[in-house]
Amino acid sequence: MQPGFFDFDDLNDKLDQHNDPLAKINELVDWAVFRPVLSKIRMPRSSNKGRPRSDTLPPHPPQETPR
What is the DSSP letter of 56? Predict the structure, then answer.
């Protein structure tokens, strides 16, 4: 069964109600510290074709989706 449109938002709400440990870790960890290491191990682009690369680190905190 394919997840519905709001299933992920509902799951995040439930996790927040039960003190999601990943949210606490996200508040404590400075993810930008990992950027130099991740940049070194990431393979260089061989051409400019196709989709442009996304950032090494996703935006933190995660973007809330409006309901």
Answer: S
pTM for this predicted structure: 0.47
Separation CA 9–CA 64 (nearest Å)? 9
How far apart CA 6 and CA 52 sit, in angstroms, is 28
Rg (CA), the chain: 16
Q: What's the mean pLDDT in 24-35?
A: 86
pLDDT band at 23; cut points 50, 70, 90? confident
Upstream peptide bond of 59 is cis (omega within 30 degrees of 0): no
Q: What is the DSSP letter of 31?
A: G
pLDDT above 60 for 55 = yes
